[in-house]
Hints:
Blueprint: H1 6-33, H2 37-60, H3 94-117, H4 122-148, H5 162-165
Amino acid sequence: MMGYSLAEFLAHAIALETEAAERYAELADMMEAHNNLETAAVFRDMARFSTLHGDEIRQRSRALELPKLMSWQYRWKTPPEVGDENDIHYLMTPYHALRYARDNEIRGMEYYKDAAANSSDPEVRRLGTDFAAEEAEHVVALDKWIEKTPRPSITWSEDADPAQSGE
């Protein structure tokens, strides 16, 4: 990864958090549509965390002119905190949702660590390290939440959907 300028890094960070918040909100809506309210609540919390982090980054970057990046100008194919669509299912439990969110937060943390490590700009290194630490805190919080969340005996992916198997 090529080093970021400070403005580029902040534009990417805002996009990352915005995409994550939008994705979590969509997932919450999907879970609510299937009356999976407990899992929807997990995704609503994750959307709120991403929105708050994005707002903090916007505040920090008020004094800068950030580039308006088009989708093809981002340095990723899929934003780091947006997980694989195949990992989502309307029957997923809060446990599954938390695991999904944890994987997203780890990718976000790695992204920020890499940005910090590969930049010659001291402010990008500092902020990248700070943002990575914040994502790491989210991972720790999710780990605690996962510990307290009942683990299903089978996953929805192992559970043949009777509606689809013709039973």
